[in-house]
Amino acid sequence: MSKKAKTPPATPGRDYQKTAEYERTAAENATEIFDSRDPFALFAEWLEAAKRREPNDPDAMALATADAGGAPDVRMVLLKDAGPEGFVFYTNLESAKGGQIAANPQAALCFHWKSLRRQVRVRGPLAPVSAAEADAYFASRARDSRIGAWASQQSRPLESRFALEKAVAAAAARFGLGEVPRPPHWSGFRLSPLRIEFWRDRPFRLHDRLVFIRSDPDSPWRTERLYP
Fold first, then answer.
1. From first to last of its 228 residues, what are the pLDDT tens digits of the chain?
2. CATH code for the part of the protein at 19-133+189-225
3. Catalytic center residues
């Protein structure tokens, strides 16, 4: 029987390589004001910084949901709007995540910007966006993506790649050169946060953690600092 490979221990100093980029990020994390201001304003600042520095998809976030029995699931999705009302994403309502949200309408998000050595975690209840919001966003998508939303039976078994391509061709023929409306099974959700935690890297794993907490979406925020 072959020996199982062991996970190597962390290399001393691995997280703190003295590259110019690391030194720049470390200096920013050490000097930027990190206080109990409005969490949405702080998130907006961090997202803008990520858009300047993150190589791919700075608006990507891990979305965690759970089914009616409490079994968790997680996947990457794209943030489409963020502000005092909450964080918005879109999906096929008949997908696995759509079914989980219908059974258990609450979720958690995690943004990780490696280039900034920062992370934001969000948790709270979910509510559907309005039909007008969903229509407006769907209309902004590329035409091929709109056709794909009609063709894909998201999360369900797929016989073959050819079956998917056939469904796409059928949807394209259905709409021809006309407008592609939003499917009734496609919409979005807004997470109204009850907890938002901001994390940033500091040397020797003595990281900064600042959390905003409220009991419901209409209550004021209170803040806490956490041990790393």
1. 456 666 666 555 555 555 666 666 665 666 576 776 799 999 999 999 999 999 899 999 999 999 999 999 999 999 999 999 999 999 999 999 999 999 999 999 999 999 999 999 999 999 999 999 999 999 999 999 999 999 999 999 999 999 999 999 999 999 999 999 999 999 999 999 999 999 999 989 899 999 999 999 999 999 999 999
2. 2.30.110.10
3. 205
Distance between CA atoms of 52 and 50, rounded to whole angstroms?
A: 5
CA atoms within 13 A on the CB side of 170: 10
Residue ranges per domain, the chain?
19-133+189-225
User: d(Cα 166, Cα 144) in Å, to the nearest integer?
Assistant: 14
pTM above 0.85, yes or no: yes
Mark residue 54 as left, alpha or beta (left: phi above 0; alpha: psi -120 to 50; beta: remaining): beta
